[in-house]
Amino acid sequence: xxxxxxVIPVSYKDCWFLRRTIPYIRKNISEIGxxxxxxxxxxFHELSDDFMAKYHVSxxxxxxxxxxxxxxxxxxxxxxxxxxxxxxxxxQQFLKLAFARSNYAKEYYLIWxxxxxxxxxxxxxxxxKILVNPKREYHAEYFETIYxxxxxxxxxDYSYISEHMMIKTSxxxxxxxxxxxNDDWWxxxxxxxxxxxxxxxxxxxxxxxxxxxxxxxxxxLRQLNTLRWGGxxxxxxxxxxxxxxxxxxxxxxxxxxxxxPFFPRSIWWRIHNLYIEIKYRVVR
Length: 284
Fold this sequence. Notes:
Elements: E1 4-9, H1 12-15, H2 18-28, E2 32-39, H3 49-55, E3 57-61, H4 71-79, H5 87-98, E4 108-112, E5 116-118, E6 125-126, E7 129-132, H6 140-150, E8 164-168, H7 169-179, H8 185-192, H9 203-214, E9 219-221, E10 226-227, H10 230-233, H11 240-246, E11 252-254, H12 265-283
Parallel strand pairs: 1-2, 1-4, 2-3, 7-9, 10-11
Antiparallel strand pairs: 4-8, 5-11, 6-7
Helix pairs in contact: 4-5, 6-9
């Protein structure tokens, strides 16, 4: 299988954690081309030139990836639905999709959550099919939006929501064309959302449901052992020794910023979150 790139959208408050994530990505995922970090230009200084050269990282201004997709435009539209606080949550999902129409995209690219560390060697293809990791989440609002977009229903008993997904670029381009052939596809998505729920759209569920309907032979299921709540146990100050211990039982572990670890690491968690918040306000 030809090499593929990795795409990681990341906010300012999470950008520093890439220094932990990216070395493990390079170590445990083979056949990678470039690691594209989609973020604000104010975050570019968080990764040194030496770090980017060592791990073959390229920084992309999130507001220049697509002609019409910018944080401010998404925020302006979300404000029409009294949801400006959810701008970042939707914007990072749109960036993952917009990458398919960009000049950076190869035949495949892997979207990866910035707070997730791969602990063991991972592959993403088998017999020409993309390997996906099924989960058990279910949010009816996601599928209501999908139905309004494409007229298709949830047909499988598992969820596609994971911390990563391999993308076939041509499929996502077709999906976006089905929403709108123009660069306003993300506006159409917002208009189809019922904002009685703040979280009314999932890029993972949308891609998975669309592919199950129109490209049913694209995916093959595989089971990874994943731990989502690493942050609530160890916090982001987890040591390399602890990660080595975790790899015995888990293939990936996630450290969500809002997850508060147990005492005494909760002290560091509070101090660091306060530091990041102050720094964010100064930079912004």
